[in-house]
Every structure is written in C-alpha cells, then in structure tokens.
Amino acid sequence: MGAKLKVAGLLAVGALAGAMTTLQLQANARESLAPLPLEELQQLAAVFGMIKSDYVEPVDEKKLISDAIGGMVAGLDPHSQYFDKKSFKEFRESTGGKFVGIGIEMGMEDGLVKVVSPIEGSPAFRAGLKPGDLITRIDDTAVKGLSVDQAVKRMRGEPNTKVSLTVLRKSENRTFPVTITREEIRVQSVRAKMFEPGYAWIRVSQFQDRTVDDFARKVEDLYKQDPNIKGIVLDLRNDPGGLLDGAVAIASAFLAPDVVVVSTNGQIADSKATFKAAPEYYLRRSGSDPLKKLPAALKTVPLVVLVNEGSASASEIVAGALQDHKRATVMGAQTFGKGSVQTVRPLSADTALKITTARYYTPSGRSIQAKGIVPDVWLDETAEGNVFAALRMREADLEKHLQGADEKKDEAREKAREEARQKLEEQFAKSKETPKPLPEFGSAEDFPLVQAFNQLRGKPVIVSKTAVERQAEAPEDKQ
C-alpha cells in the first residue's frame, strides 16, 4: 500500500495539469430559459428542509446551497465548476499570472519541496534560495506527508506576511532556516534561450493573461542574440492550457496571416465561432498587437512542437493548428485530449460558474476530445524508455468526460497502465526509493528536447520503439 501511495503521488501533478481547462471569458449569460421542472425543485426544497430540521447538528444555509450548486455542476463533466468566493479568487490568480507568495518554480523530490528555480527578483531570489534546494519545513509543519497543493497553500498568504522555511542544500551538505516576506509575484509563463548556436528553445508553461506579451519579448530577445536562427523548438510539455485567445495568438505568430487556427461549436450562438491568425481574434483589449514587431522569419523558420501526455487544451490547439497547416513537426507523446471550451460566467462579484459551452476543432476539422494530438514523431521520456507515461491520466480516463468521436473502450490501454503501475511498485519495494525524477525541461539532459533539436539539424533521431497511438476510452455501460 505504501508503494502505491508514493507512486500515485508522483503522478498527481500530471493528472492535475491535464484536468485544467481552456477558458473563454464572457460575462453575458443566456437569457432564454426552458420551463423549470417544478416537481424536482419541490424535492430539492424538501431535502433542504429535512436537513435543516433533522440533521444531527445545525447546518449553515448558505453552505447547503453552495454545496448543492457545486454538486449540480460537478455532475456535468470534469471541467465545469462552481466557483465560491475562495476558489474564484484562486482561479483569477491562476489565469492572471500573479499571486502572493515567495516566488519559486517548484517540484517534489523524496517527498520534499524542490526549488526548480527562484523567480528572478522575487523574495525567494533575494533571500538566496538556489535551484536544487529542498524545503523540509514550512513554519512549524514538516513537508513530508504534504501534497503539492498543501505545500503551495502554506507558502502562499497575504502580502507582507512572513513564512519561515527550513532548507536543505545538498551541494553544501547543510540545513539552514530562512524567513521570507511574501509579496505579489508575477509568473513568467514563457521561458526561452539559445539552446546552442543557431537553435532556440521557447517554453510556454501555461496560457495566461501575460503570456502573449511575454512570448513576444522573449522572441525579440532571441533574434537580437542571433538574427539568423536556423530552428526553434516550441516546448508545450505539461502545459495544461489556459486562455483560448492566448493559444490563438501563439499559433498566429508562426502561421500565415488569416488562416484558421481553431473553430468551436456548441448549443448557443456564441459558442459557434472560427478563430483565425489575425489580431482581431486574439486581442481582448484595446492596444497594439504584441506580435506586430516580431521578425518575419518566425513565419518560416523550421519548427518542432514538443508535447506529452500533460499537454492539454490550449496547448493542444496550438499543436493541432501547426500540425494541420504543416507548419511544424509535432514530436513527443500523444497529448491529453481535452477538446472542450469552458466559459466563465460571473454570478456575483465573488462567485462564478465555469461551464463547458463548446467543443473545439483543429483547422482540418478534427476533434481531439478524449483522443488528443498524435505526434508525427514519437519520443520516449528518457534514453532508457518511458518512466511515467503509461500511468498518466488523460481526458479519456476522467469520469463523466465528454464522449469523443468513435470512442470505444481500450482494454489494452487499461492493462498497460496497470502493468506499468505494478512494475513501478515492485521497483520501489525492492529499492526503497522513488523512481529517479525526470531531468529539468530545457537542460542538456532533457532527452526529448535533444531529439527535437536533432530533428531540426538533420541528425538521427532516437524514436520510440514501444509507443503506440492510444484510442479514446469509453466508459462501460452500467446495468
């Protein structure tokens, strides 16, 4: 059982990422409503009354109603959600690209928070935290045993409040305390660098409010370093999605003007739309087009898009558009398969409803719902093969997911996942250690990235010998 829990913990981040949504923010609710089912509403009122009068202890009426709304929405699909005051605040922080905290990109290693990188200029950066540092305690709480979300929440808080960390720095073989004052952090969702002379790496980790502006600045910097870039890798691995207009913009940066990027279709008129590679389809507010000054060479430079099972939603829109227009070679693993659009409709100043309003389609008319984008070139996670790929959750694995086209149960997929899980548990039981974490994205040890650059340079690529296309999985009929 212990092995199972530890293996499951290693996969939790990927599963969460895949479950995030592409968002199209709108404020106008549908005005016309069908007649209300009076008998069912009377039952709801009766249950409410019984709980109020008969439950073992008093229950807050507002909480009952909030829970009822949440349950109703949760029954639709994995991506529709009712936002109460707290969750709506967290949602706006995630899409806005800013939050109050200490400012680290983090992962988990041996059950501890690992500092992947302090965000430049952040409190953590100024306090001297370094990549590879392990946080063992947050205030008086040991990190071991906490989930990723629990650790994150303890490090976040109100501006100008303090958090005390105990840090293990393996490179210096010492542990030391540090107290950091929280402040508002602006997340950089785009990273970029010259991986080697002539070849650039651009990573988009999520599509947020500031992503397009950050992308434009990073590309300009790359071309200042080398005006004659020979190839670019656009890295969308583990990108859970985000704002739809951000995806349209990033795809537009590489595509010819006015070609179709994505189309959507749903029950209401607003959900039937076609988005093209033009500013009017991705600019949400007045102002200049951040892509206008990008070099013309970006439209023709050889391009590889790197994806994996954690690439979902908005990142799948970008990969699908560039693949359909034959603008890029898509490499990596089959993506998550989230082919639906969610609209956020405010209910009050502090609450909102995020509801699935449309399916989206690539320029050729493909729906990737429950299937994902199939790469042109399959790659393994490491030179030795895949470590976690078969275990990662995909859209088709989620309960109540929207049915994909020609969806059917894939028993071989489920069997492969179970065999992979058992193998990892057996390895852990023998070694008493968790599997070695994958190298950091963008590093020289990043095996898929090295293969992507080999593709651009015309060098041999080590393709996967075991990966095969996974069909969408339909839930079994319940009798």
From TrEMBL:
Gene Ontology BP terms: proteolysis; signal transduction
Annotated source species: Rubrivivax gelatinosus (strain NBRC 100245 / IL144)
CDD domains: cpPDZ_CPP-like, Peptidase_S41_CPP
Pfam family, any one: PDZ_2
Cellular component GO terms held in the UniProt record: outer membrane-bounded periplasmic space
Gene3D superfamilies, alphabetized: 2-enoyl-CoA Hydratase, Chain A, domain 1 (3.90.226.10), 2.30.42.10, 3.30.750.44
Protein encoded by which gene: ctpA
Documented EC number(s): 3.4.21.102
Record family assignment: Belongs to the peptidase S41A family.
Name of the protein in question: Carboxyl-terminal processing protease CtpA
Keywords assigned: Hydrolase, Protease, Serine protease
Top EC class, one word: hydrolase
Boundaries of every PDZ domain copy: 88-156
Compositionally skewed regions (Basic and acidic residues) per UniProt: 402-435
Gene Ontology terms, MF aspect: serine-type endopeptidase activity
Keyword Hydrolase: yes
Ranges for region Disordered: 402-443
NCBIfam families: prc
PANTHER family named in the record: CARBOXY-TERMINAL PROCESSING PROTEASE CTPA, TAIL-SPECIFIC PROTEASE
Top-level taxonomy: Bacteria, Pseudomonadati, Pseudomonadota, Betaproteobacteria, Burkholderiales
Keyword Protease: yes
